[in-house]
Structure prediction request, 148 residues.
Amino acid sequence: MSDTDAPRTDTLDADDLDFLARPLLGFFSTASGPTPPQPRPVWFEATDDGEIQIFTGPKSLKVRRLDTDPRASIVVATPVEERERWISVAGPARVETDGAAARELAARLADRYWDLDDPSRAQDLAEILADEWVRIVIRPEKIRRLSF
Prediction:
């Protein structure tokens, strides 16, 4: 199946949410007018209500670009040793400045992506949690999928 044949919707289904619950990297992009998107690998979480959230620094380029243009996207794909599958979620993004919620997200994601029994990873998480963070939340308007 080519990606032009991939189903398009504005809602993540149960299969999408299962896929997005895996510890995969997402590639996050913001719209930036004439500047081409510059995807960055990120940890992410799909919420029960179908939004995608990440955490980042309050003065990051992501936040500055979203202040100008709220359009964003994330693409998540399987590792190369698995059958091909990817999902792309695009839509308006909002920056939520509740630092406690962002740190809670960071802690959940660290637990998902790292072995926190490893003392060096536990220390990495402690350092992350000591910093200031915001959440970026994408509300899906366009979802594309491919798997075969």
